[in-house]
Amino acid sequence: MKIAFDAQLLIKGDKTGIGWCAENILMRMPQYLENTYQLNYFSLGYTVEQLDNVHKYTTFGYQINECTWFHHTLYRMMWNFFYVPYSFFFRKPADVTLFFNYVIPPGVKGKKIAIVYDMAYKAYPETVRKRTRRLLEIALKKSCRRADHILTISEFSKKEIIKYLNIPEDKITIMPCGVDTTLYHEKYTDEDIDRVCKKYRIQGVYLLYLGTLEPRKNIVRLLKAYAQLKQKISDTPKLVLAGRKGWMYDEIFEIVNSLNLMSDIIFTGYVDAEDAPILIKGAMVFLFPSIYEGFGMPPLEAMACGTPVLTSNTSSLPEVVGDAGVLVDPFSVDSIKDGMEKLINSKELRMELSNKGLVRSKNFSWDVSTEVFHKVIQNNLGK
Fold first, then answer.
1. Three-state SS across the chain?
2. How many CB atoms lie within 10 A of CB 81?
3. HSE on the CB side for 28, CA within 13 Å?
4. Alpha carbon distance 107, 103 (integer Å)
5. What's the CA gap between 121 and 303, in Å, rounded?
């Protein structure tokens, strides 16, 4: 069987959640030797360095299937209004094509699978970039109708897809995310941590948020909770906000200024992939009070590093963290503050959650995720 993957999201290099999901599935699929594999992507307008982000997979046995004469952005704009078949650009047909990023264009030959990660654009539209929300409103229902099968990443997200899009339950399979234990583990040394902290200008004990700076991550309430905690505990560790700017991030910097936290907050910008687990390992506590998550990779990665976690008691996050973290109400500044205070004040609690997190994180494996995808192909699509 020939299996194709839409590889467009890999070209730009700096990966966030969906990109890491794609990376880990692609790295593991070639173990199933009965299949052949190809990567579909539009190459027009990209640099050689960007295209190398896709070409590297040829060393794992992937064939390249590129469109060199048309731009992806233009096609994505067109397909929502005109029937322009995907097969017109990619002439090497596959038996199954997987689309990592929610939507399936028209005219894909063979069976089609989409990964739909969450329904944030429906549940909390104000937290989703307007352009993304508009695209999903136009395209997602059509994509789900085109799909022969849909993968999602948690029981919570499956229920959300059924609720908002009225998709039959038997058309959806849960493929939980995994954690890359070659990167995310507890064995980093003090020297490793000191080196990475120096790189990102971090001194002393710190609390850590790592993720995109955007409204859905609830950073404004986190900052308000931190300011309240500082008033109560003067030697509260500094708060590191690590990650690239998303959208509507200006309010975050305004809040830092208005609460007079300029000397207490460290913004690192985008953190290199190899540095992220070391930064997590070095933190006293990992903070992730997100409003809405389809899965919640950062808390899982923190647990795998042995770092105690504070996260939200909503959406998929309790499903991932279980009893291995402090769960708070993400809409309550007081709840976030109380959770942080509890963790800072109790070394015993931090040790307990560290141990529980290490155990729980072992339940989530990219090998298992890839096997779920392989079984979907065999059981549902290989006919």
1. CEEEEECHHHCCCCCCHHHHHHHHHHHHHHHCCCCEEEEEEECCCCCHHHHHHHHHHHHHCCEEEEECCCCHHHHHHHHCCCCCCHHHCCCCCCCEEEECCCCCCCCCCCEEEEECCCCHHHHCHHHCCHHHHHHHHHHHHHHHHHCCEEEECCHHHHHHHHHHHCCCHHHEEECCCCCCCCCCCCCCCHHHHHHHHHHCCCCCCEEEEECCECHHHCHHHHHHHHHHHHHHCCCCCEEEEECCECCCCHHHHHHHHHCCCCCCEEEEECCCCCCHHHHHHHCCEEEECCCCCCCCHHHHHHHHCCCCEEEECCCCHHHHHCCCEEEECCCCHHHHHHHHHHHHHCHHHHHHHHHHHHHHHCCCCHHHHHHHHHHHHHHHHCC
2. 8
3. 18
4. 13
5. 28
User: For 259-286, how does the pLDDT look when each residue is reduced to its tens digit (9 = 90+)?
Assistant: 988 999 999 998 998 999 999 999 999 9
Calculate the CA dihedral of residues 191, 197, 199, 203 and round it to 10 degrees: -120
**Phi, psi (5° rounding) for residue 288?**
-150, 70
Return d(Cα 321, Cα 358) in angstroms, integer. Answer: 11
Report residue 172 as tokens.
Answer: 């959806």
Per-residue model confidence as pLDDT tens digits over 191-242: 999 999 999 999 999 999 999 888 889 999 999 999 999 999 989 999 999 9
- Report the b/e string of 218-236 with b at 16+ CB within 10 A: bbbbbbbbbbbbbeeeeeb
In Å, what is the CA distance from 376 to each residue of 28, 77, 148, 364, 380? 15, 30, 10, 18, 5
Encoding tokens for residue 190? 């003090």
d(CA 174, CA 152): 5
Residue 117 makes CB contacts below 8 A (sequence gap 6+) with 17, 18, 102, 152, 153, 157, 294, 295
Distance (Å, rounded) from C-alpha 74 to C-alpha 71?
6
pTM of the model: 0.91
Report CA torsion sign: 5, 8, 14, 17.
Answer: negative
Rounded to whole angstroms, how far apart are CA atoms 81 and 303? 44
CB atoms within 10 A of CB 109: 16
